[in-house]
Amino acid sequence: MTDPTHAPLRIVLAEDSVLLREGLVRLFDEAGFETIAAHGDADALLAALDRDAPDVAVLDVRMPPTFRDEGVRAAIEIRRRRPDIGVLLLSQYVEGTYANELLSSGDGGMGYLLKDRVASLDELRDAVERVSQGGTVLDPQVVRELLGRRGDPLARLTPREREVMALMAEGRTNAGIAKALFIGVGAVEKNVTSIFQKLALEDSGTDHRRVLAVLAWLQR
Amino acid sequence: MQAEDASLRRLERDIHDGPQQRLVRLQMDLASIERAVDRDPDAARRMLGEARQQARETLDELRALSRGFAPPILQDRGLAVALESLGARSTVPVVLEIGIPADGAPPVVPASIERNVYFVAAELLTNAVKHAEARGIRLRASLRDTGATGWWLDLWVTDDGRGGATSVPGHGLAGLEERVRGLDGILVVDSPVGGPTSIGAHIPFVPVA
User: Fold this and answer.
1) Is the pLDDT reported for residue A26 higher than 80?
2) In terms of domains, do B119 and B177 share one?
3) Bridge partners of residue B27, in order along the sequence
4) Where are the alpha helices (DSSP H) in chain B?
5) B69 and chain A: CB distance < 8 Å anywhere?
6) Residue B150 maps to which CATH number?
7) Cβ within 8 Å, pair A93-B72
8) Quick one: average pLDDT of A163-172?
9) Taking the domain A143-219, which CATH number applies?
10) Which of B92, B77, B169 is nearest to B124 (CA)?
């Protein structure tokens, strides 16, 4: 490895459906990632984790043996045991309860998305890369749920500020927010400053710490 | 049991009218794309975009249907966590007092009772927010061993809204009453005009061995 910045990201995967496992491996390949191992359940992924030493672990939520929340539990264990490994959970449904548990289980890279979102190669690549860099990626549906339960204080924000707040909570950078809303980065920064003032939050500067501050506020 | 039959029929209809139709359409569109791909690549590309949209909407519909029938968090974590999740999702703050063991500790409530209680709680919370214009809600749930008359699950939802909730045939509360009575339980409504409203659902169950 002469130039580590150009080494492909190394992925391990746990997904019990053969159909989706093969589809994801193919997408990872197209995205330029290297799939080191593709497991059928979370225990197999955990057992091989130290040996595989991936950059990112991608997990389904419902897997054998009980088909309940195996993936969530495994993700939390990885975050405790190996905070250097990014974790991306993909699920057929998203739950605010799981998002809260994941967010409070560590501060390494973490993503929680509906499987539908990664049908697009760009979105999958973006999510895996952000998680590998220690970022947070939250599904818009989880964010809607988190915002929904904080009605009163959010009423102080302008409609534009609420849009910016939602995209921040999804884990997007200023540049990402600007692109999504078709506005300039300067305008995003102005909105962010105003949001932090109105919610009495301390602006910690870096994109990632800011996301965590917003999410901590939403969970309060 | 009759309510169960009716809801199964409705589910079948919803699957038939929604996702199933969409998949049929998707198959037709994919066949058109196959025919157009050489002749008119631009049209094929546009139809591909539409087909993906069609697939996405099918998934959304299926998810909404299964959530309405069997909420994932209830399947995954059981009633106690599912009620907490309901409370957390509410747009009006809910104070929770859940005295039901989580993680499968005894006494274990049968799955069919869990599901019914979940939907009763969901509807009571919705009513408090929508119709009573409550600003604060309290949700209590606990299990009670009465000895001679067996185990009961007690669910109370109280709110500080405007009160005056009555059970009118064909309306929400009457439907809830029917659901609870179908489980041999009772629904107790105390809702003077001006509030507060307190509604209790009391349902007998036989713990799962």
Assistant:
1) yes
2) yes
3) none
4) 2-15, 21-39, 41-69, 72-77, 79-89, 111-130, 172-181
5) no
6) 3.30.565.10
7) yes
8) 91
9) 3.40.50.2300
10) B92
Sign of the torsion angle spanned by Cα atoms A107, A109, A115, A117: positive
Judge if B136 and B46 occupy the same domain.
no
Taking an 8 Å cut-off on Cβ atoms, the answer to whether A97 and B81 are in contact is yes
Q: What is the pTM of this model?
A: 0.85
> Judged by CB atoms within 8 Å, which residues 41-80 of A form the interface with B?
62, 68-69
The CATH code that applies to domain A4-138 is 3.40.50.2300
Query: Which residue pairs, CB below 8 angstroms and at least 24 apart, start in B109-113?
Result: B109/B79, B109/B143, B109/B153, B109/B205, B109/B207, B109/B208, B110/B205, B110/B206, B110/B208, B113/B153, B113/B183, B113/B203, B113/B205
B59 CB within 8 Å of a chain A CB:
yes
Note whether B55 and B79 are same-domain residues. no
Q: Using CA atoms, how far apart are residues B190 and A38, in angstroms rounded to an integer?
A: 57
Residue A203 one-letter amino acid: D
Structure tokens at A73: 């539990």
Alpha-carbon span B137 to B157, nearest angstrom: 7
Report B:78-137 residues touching A (Cβ under 8 A): 81, 84-85, 88-92
Mean pLDDT of A80-106: 92
CB contact under 8 A, B91 and A145: no
pLDDT in tens, B22-48: 999 999 999 999 999 999 999 999 999
Per-residue confidence band for A4, with pLDDT thresholds at 50, 70 and 90 = low
Number of domains in chain B: 2
- Report yes or no for ipTM above 0.95: no
pLDDT per residue over B142-157, tens digit each?
999 999 999 999 999 9
Chain A partners within 8 Å of B77 (Cβ): 68-69, 97
Domain of residue B43 covers 2-69
CA distance A107 to chain B (A): 23
Same domain, B141 and B80: yes
Give the helix/strand (H/E) hosting A218: helix A207-219
Please compute Rg for chain A using Cα positions.
18
